[in-house]
Amino acid sequence: MKPKRTILCVDEDERSLSVLKVMLETRGYRVVACSHSDRAVEAMRVGGIDLVLADLPMPKPDGSQLVDRLKAISPTTPAIVFKGASGACPDGLLADILLSKSNCTSAQLLDHIRMALVRKRGPKPAVANLQVVRPLAC
After folding, report:
1. What is the pTM assigned to this prediction?
2. What are the boundaries of each domain within the chain?
């Protein structure tokens, strides 16, 4: 059985966080849900996080600053950030993927998660095509 991937979800809106957690857990992911950025940083320091989902419009620190802190701890962990419908993208955002909350369906989000995790893992190793060589009969 494949080990489950762990996703750190950060959003100050408890209802959105709960919906996201249920959606991801029913798809086989482990979810660490945090409504405060300090708890998210603690979770990242503990380790075992495969991907970060964070909301950009959050109280101090905002999603951009949070991603900066999380990437300082684990630079190779992919980060997907949700922005508001009218929000602009901050300069220097370290997120790997930036999604609009209002224009992203659940199916699209799951595709982005799957692709980000595949990129993190890298390509599957090539399997040598070994052929059995039998001695020629004389």
Report:
1. 0.77
2. 6-121
Note whether 39 and 66 are within 8 A (CB).
no
| Cβ(12)–Cβ(35) below 8 Å | yes
Tell me if 43 sits within 8 A of 73, measured CB to CB: no
Q: Give the Å distances, CA to CA, from 89 to 61, 67, 85, 93, 106.
A: 15, 13, 11, 7, 21
What is the tens place of the pLDDT at every residue in 84-112? 655 555 555 677 778 877 778 889 889 98
| Of 49 and 94, more confident | 49
Q: Please name the CATH architecture into which domain 6-121 falls.
A: 3-Layer(aba) Sandwich (3.40)
Contact 68, 33 (CB under 8 A): no
Burial of 129 (0-12, 13-18, 19+ CB in 10 A): exposed
- Whole-number Å distance between alpha carbons of 70 and 45: 8
